[in-house]
Amino acid sequence: DSGVTQTPKHLITATGQRVTLRCSPRSGDLSVYWYQQSLDQGLQFLIQYYNGEERAKGNILERFSAQQFPDLHSELNLSSLELGDSALYFCASGKTGGQAFFGQGTRLTVV
Amino acid sequence: DAKTTQPPSMDCAEGRAANLPCNHSTISGNEYVYWYRQIHSQGPQYIIHGLKNNETNEMASLIITEDRKSSTLILPHATLRDTAVYYCIVGSSGYAGNNRKLIWGLGTSLAVNP
Fold it and tell me: pLDDT tens, A19-72?
């Protein structure tokens, strides 16, 4: 158990819909990272938040957005969903200078 | 941040050492080398990281060449449970530092055979 909690574990939705993925980082970790992993692909970095502020952006689509709240939990919002958005979405948290701890992911299926 | 190159797949016999290479020829002076693994579709698991010196922990050893352009992850006595995809990534000032655009490749799929 990494200490990072992601909900829901599975999500099935229709094209054009909007979903919200939630991540609770490990206690005390200020950084939250979001990744997307499509079938048989490596992890694609989406975005990083540090103590409530956006710190780095990767290959995140304009239809996607994220935020980190004062209690440090984070949400990834995916809108106008397309079939190609079906993937595993991972959240990770960590402290400055240390390694990252990953949650078990949310498997999103867009039908 | 620097990119890494890893062989797409490797095999290892159970009980033997697994040596997984990684090339990071464009690594910068302040960039660490991190190794993670992903078992099936679970969340990646941290293994080890290092800057210049060789490192060892309860899971593995990390050997970094003197010029820091490549490294090797060593699993000393591989078991069937070590079958996973192993990722080598580089990041400056620690993985969880600020302003990081972290690049993960496709990793090495390690198959440990009985």
Answer: 999 999 999 899 899 999 998 778 888 999 989 999 888 889 999 999 999 999
Question: Does the pLDDT of residue B18 top 90, yes or no?
Answer: yes
Q: Coil, strand or helix: which one is B12?
A: strand
A48 and chain B: CB distance < 8 Å anywhere?
A: yes
Strand order in the sheet with B31-38: B9-13, B108-113, B84-92, B31-38, B45-50
Q: Say whether A96 and B97 touch across the interface (CB within 8 A).
A: yes
CB contact under 8 A, B96 and A100: yes
Of B46, B94, B98, nearest to A55 by CB-CB distance is B98
What per-residue confidence (pLDDT) applies to B32? 87
A54 in Cβ contact with A32 (< 8 Å): no
Q: What angle do CA B101, B86, B92 make, to 5 degrees?
A: 30
Q: Does the CB of A19 have a partner CB in chain B at under 8 Å?
A: no
Interface check B40 vs A, CB under 8 A: no
Strands A64-68 and A87-94: unpaired
Residue of A nearest to B105 (CA): A42
Q: Cβ contacts (< 8 Å) between A100 and chain B: which residues?
A: 46, 95-96
- Token pair for residue A57? 């952006």
